[in-house]
Structure formats: C-alpha cells, structure tokens
Write a structure and sequence with these properties.
By secondary structure, this protein is of the alpha+beta class. Helix content is 14%, strand content 24%.
C-alpha cells in the first residue's frame, strides 16, 4: 500500500461528503446501480476521492453487472489492496483503497487531449 495519510476524524468529515465518509472511512457502500460511474464510458483515470491516488484507468473498466464500477486491472498495485471474496455464492477479487471502491469513493480525472 502507498504512504498512509494521517488525518483526524474531524478533518476527514470536513473534506468528504457524508456518503464518501461513510464509504471511505466507515466501511459503507452505495446502493447497486446508483453511482455516477456505473455506466460512465469517459476516458481518464479513476482516483481515490479521499487521497487522490491513481487507482484505475478507464480502459480497464468493464460492465460486470454488479451495479458498481468494475475494473480488471489497477493503475498502481501499490495504491490498492486485493482481497479474495467468496461471499454471496460467487468468487471475486475485492479491490480496496481504504474500503470498498465504488462511485462515491472515486473521482474521474478526464484524459487531456494531446496536441
């Protein structure tokens, strides 16, 4: 994992929306198919909404049918934790920055055109 960011709970609450705080700091999640990035096709890099670490490139995003943004490869393995998850009668790899990665935990930085 990358360098840990040390902030007080009050600092995190001041910087994040209530939904982001719940997801990024309190192990919450958003309802399936409700997030702004579930169906997004825009080019760019998905970064952690809390620390700004680059997590995924848009070219690795795919439609998993789960209701959350899904990616087949992290942009930087040091910025994420990969954890096997066999719950809900399926086998998958859960990817975490601090907690569950979903739309509220991500910020898409659009790709800038090259000249």
């Amino acid at each position: 994992m990358s360098t840990k960011i040390s902030k007080t709970d009050a600092e995190w609450r001041a910087e994040l929306t209530p939904e982001q705080y719940d997801i990024l700091r309190a192990k919450g999640t958003e309802r399936p198919f409700s997030g702004k990035y579930v169906h997004t096709k825009a080019d760019g890099t998905y970064c952690c909404a809390a620390c700004g670490a680059q997590l995924f490139r848009s070219k690795t995003k795919f439609e998993s049918g789960t209701g959350w943004p899904s990616f087949y490869e992290p942009a930087n393995l040091e910025a994420v934790e990969l954890r096997s998850d066999n719950s809900l009668f399926m086998r998958r790899t859960e990817v975490l920055c601090r907690y569950c990665i979903n739309s509220a935990a991500l910020e898409l930085k659009p790709e800038t055109p090259t000249s």
